[in-house]
Amino acid sequence: MNVDIEAVLRRHGYDGTRLIDILWDVQNLYGHIPAEHLPQMAAALNRSPLDIVETASFYHFFHTTPSGLHRIYLSNTVIAKMNGYQAVYDALEQHTGVRFGDAGEAALFGLFETPCIGLSDQEPAMLIDGVVFTRLTPETVADIIAELKAGRTAAQIANPAGLPEDDLAYVDHLVTSNVLTRGPVFFSGQADHTALLKRCLGSSPEETIGTIVESGLRGYGGAGFRTGLKWQLCRAAAGEDKYVICNADEGEPGTFKDRALLTRAPKDVFLGMVIAAYAIGSRHGIIYLRAEYAYLRQYLERQLRELREDGLLGYGIGGQPGFDFDIRIQMGAGAYVCGEESALIESCEGKRGTPRLKPPYPIQQGYLGKPTCVNNVETFAAATRVMEEGVEWFRRMGTAESVGTRLLSVAGDCRSPGVYEVEWGVTLDEVLSMVGALNARAVQISGPSGECLSVQADGRRRIAYEDIGCNGAVTIFDATRDLLDSVRDYTKFFMDESCGICVPCRAGTVDLHDKVELVIAGNAVQQDLDEVARWGALVHANSRCGLGATAANPILTTLEKFPEIYRRRLRTEEHTLLASFDLDAALAGYERARTELQTGGTA
Ligand code: SF4
Predict the structure, then answer these.
(1) Helix, coil or strand: residue 461
(2) Does residue 583 have a pLDDT over 60?
(3) Cα–Cα distance between 546 and 358 in angstroms, integer?
(4) Of 379, 447, 542, 587, which has the fewest CB atoms closer than 10 Å, so is most exposed?
């Protein structure tokens, strides 16, 4: 029996539902999850070794083979690629002496590409051993790698002053919050959380839910489900044990507003969870924090400690006997699909983040089969403010169907990337003017799963559920950008992130990406574009979750708004031998074989 593994297992109560935490602890001990310890873990957790390996393999940040003493993940978003990504990529390979994707048994470095790490306003950016480095250049990369080679840790390099990790100064030193407009709803300042909670507890749970219903608050995750209705249904669901989960897994490429909220207003978020717990009758809360935000972990733990000290978490909250509720932080491990609420719940239970079939919905059978209310960071923060300022105040902002304000994560071709609070109903032109995007041609709204808008055609449209729904991501492209490059990146992203349980999504995301490559290579014909529309509809209709349902959006929405970027690359009839047949690639294979035959296979 290995005593270190035993200590990890004991720390987590030999509880198989805490497998993600256990895998993190084991990887932190050994740099990867060693095969020789799987039987011990499996026996203690009542799972098979294969099950543990399969679970680990689902997540980007777990390694089951040695992957370098220092593991470096470079964010490969389209925005990074606008801002010097390739030079940083080359510098990393040059100074580490390692190629991306390679990490030998005894390598000092392992280099990996990773999708968005929530820093699109300050890219290129990377994680080294979980520590964040932003605004990279080839020169800063050279310095960082030299220091690592000299024996310093990533934490020492990023934090030379040794600031305590639970201090806001530490978080600010690593990452700029970039909140460029504040309030009235978010980042409003110094709420008296104790007084607010006491006031909430003066109303019944039903009255609290009624306030949220009347306010018109909708979930900020994208679908816009009515928050009050969700709380109402969860309260009404059968069962004594209920859970409140905060989804802090903002993985949509181009999104980073929750990062700012968790930095500048974490207690607004946690208090929203406490209010939800009171409303639905829950004793247990979980915040699912994406692994990319591990640098916030100690800071958030401190916020939770302070709330306990103030009597706002724990037993008899707000002096009310019987109202017991606490929150634990569940770290993710790198999987976009875990942003889907049932996949997130699976991950919280220590499994692969595979979305569940619905119904039953999480409000009926969620975490551990119990009724579970999942809302995201922004929704909980807004709920706190609604309870503080009242329904009338909230309803005065926004539009009939989209009440209040929302946060935008703005990045790409603009003067001031960052986080902005806007009233629902603001026009696209107004947003572009506010952020200094004077030459914008296209705007990707809501990340890859959203839609690509034409500034010329859509500038006067409003960001609101009545018109352009928006999950908060706004990525701007000016006329110098080749939009097909971003379409290629986005379709590859879906291909890589599909969990694979639905065949149409697993195969369709590959086929859609191949079609884009075909267009870019100049080998597509009109039939290929027609097939994209048909396949996109097929994948949409036969996918279990939003990833598959929206996987064709990057192609379909650019095809609708900017058909010329496709048409000018299509093969014309006279040059077409067979649709999708790449003559040059086929002949290249023939040439290689012929050369090998001529040289006796030594070429
Ligand atoms: Fe997984 Fe894709 Fe199916 Fe979603 S649609 S459950 S990501 S295979």
Answers:
(1) coil
(2) no
(3) 12
(4) 587
